Amino acid sequence: xxxxxxxxxxxxxxxxxxxxxxxxxxxxxxxxxxxxxxxxxxxxxxxxxxxxxxxxxxxxxxxxxxxxxxxxxxxxxxxxxxxxxxxxxxxxxxxxxxxxxxxxxxxxxxxxxxxxxxxxxxxxxxxxxxxxxxxxxxxxxxxxxxxxxxxxxxxxxxxxxxxxxxxxxxxxxxxxxxxxxxxxxxxxxxxxxxxxxxxxxxxxxxxxxxxxxxxxxxxxxxxxxxxxxxxxxxxxxxxxxxxxxxxxxxxxxxxxxxxxxxxxxxxxxxxxxxxxxxxxxxxxxxxxxxxxxxxxxxxxxxxxxxxxxxxxxxx
Length: 315
What we know:
Blueprint: H1 2-23, E1 26-29, E2 31-32, E3 36-38, E4 43-49, H2 59-70, E5 75-77, E6 82-84, E7 105-113, E8 117-119, E9 124-125, E10 133-136, E11 140-143, E12 145-148, E13 151-154, E14 161-162, E15 165-166, H3 171-175, E16 183-186, E17 189-195, E18 198-203, E19 206-215, H4 219-230, E20 235-237, E21 240-245, E22 248-255, E23 258-265, H5 266-286, H6 292-308
Parallel strand pairs: 1-10, 3-11
Antiparallel strand pairs: 2-4, 4-7, 5-7, 6-7, 8-11, 9-10, 12-13, 14-15, 16-17, 17-18, 18-19, 19-23, 20-21, 21-22, 22-23
C-alpha cells in the first residue's frame, strides 16, 4: 500500500514537468550564407527538418508567410522559398524494401536587408512537423554600403532621394521649389516635374515614386554603367533590370525612344496598401465608428427597452 501511494505522488509530480517539457520549442539551427553583408547582397538561409508528418501544409507558403509577418520591417523576401522533399509512397511499389524511404525536408530562402545594422532574423515555425519546432537564426550585420564586384562602396544617392529631393520631403517643400505649371494632378496622385524628363510622384501625401526618362539611350549602352552604380541586378527579365537597395526599388526598362528608370519606395507603397485595406475591407467589416454621444444614446435606448419589457410574455 505504501509503495502504491509513493507511485501516485511521483506521478502527480512528474506529469506537470512532462507537460511543461512538451510545450518547450525544439530549435533547428539554420545555415546562413554570411554573417556580415552589404545592403545590396542577398542573404541565403538553409535548413533541413525531418520528413513531414502533417499533411496538407504548403511548406513554401508557410515559410514565406512567417518571414513576411516577422521580418517585414528589416528584411525583404527575394523570390519564393525553394522546398525539396520526397513524400512517403511517392514511388509505388509492393516491395517495402524497394520503396524509397521518406527524405528530410530542405528549405532555401533568399532575403535582402531593408536597413543597415545588426539585424535579427525571425524564427520560422516548422508547421509541417507535429510539436513545437522552430528554425532559429543568428544575428546578421548589414553594412551601409553597396557591394560591386567584390568591393564595398558608398551607397548611391538614390537611396536617400532623387534630383536633390529627399524621400522624406513633404509636398509643401517640393511645391515651393517647382513651378506651378510643372505640377499635374492625376486621380489620387500629384506629379511634380522639377526638371525635364524627371517626375516626382506623391500619393497620400507621401513621396512614393520617381520616373526618369532618358531619350536616345539603349539598354546595351546603359547596362555596364548601371552595373557599376547599382551592382548585379536582383531580378533580370528580357525587358527589365531590377535592383533593390534597402527600401528603394529601381527598375530600368527600354521604351520606344530610349530608357525609363522607375524608382519606387516600397515602404511608402506598403503604407498606402495598408491604408486602403483598412478603409475598403476592415472599415466595412467593423462598421461605422461610434462617437461617445452615439454610444451613450445606444446604451440608454437598450436600457429603456429592457425596462419597458413585460415581466410575463403577453399572450
